[in-house]
Amino acid sequence: MNLFIASDHAGFQLKKYLLTYIKTQLKQAVADLGPAEYKETDDYPLIASNLAKKVAADRDAKGILICGSGHGVCMVANKIKGVRGIVGYSIEAAEMGRKDEDANVLCLAGRLLSDDHAAAIVKKFLETDFTNQERHVRRLREIEEIEI
């Protein structure tokens, strides 16, 4: 599985923490799509769309996006056909998003989550598989049918 991570300025510190956590604790390769350094005036739309396009192009890829609330990057990610982004506000939400919606992008709130809570959410997101239950597969097909 290819894994990508990116943030805006509000998620930059959490992104740095999660990069280390994913590589050292989860023993997972992860590609940092930026930014490389903190820039207070950056904007999330281009950052989020870049990651979302990479995830959409690779059926097995997953992404993690971080902004202040998680909402902005999630709205952008879900504009890209094939992306199923969720806001990971809890461990349980991340688990349900993977099991039921086959979410492929996890969006996190850099200003609201502690490092440890965010790491636990990421761990659950990455270790949880889609159930492939008929009702969930049907609903995902319905979503695909309305994608523009």
- Structural domain count: 1
Structural class: alpha/beta
What is the distance, rounded to the nearest whole angstrom, between the alpha carbons of the first and last residues? 26 Å
Identify the strand order in the major beta sheet.
Answer: 2-1-3-5-4
Report the helical percentage. 40-55%
Q: Would you tell me which CATH topology applies?
A: Ribose 5-phosphate Isomerase B, Chain: A
Helix/strand order, N-terminal first: EHEHEHEHEHH
The CATH superfamily is known as Sugar-phosphate isomerase, RpiB/LacA/LacB
Question: Rg, please?
Answer: 14 Å
Instruction: Assign the CATH class.
Output: Alpha Beta
What is the level-2 CATH architecture name? 3-Layer(aba) Sandwich
Gross morphology is: globular
Instruction: Please outline the major beta sheet.
Output: 5 strands, parallel
User: What are the segments in which pLDDT stays under 50 over at least 5 consecutive residues?
Assistant: none
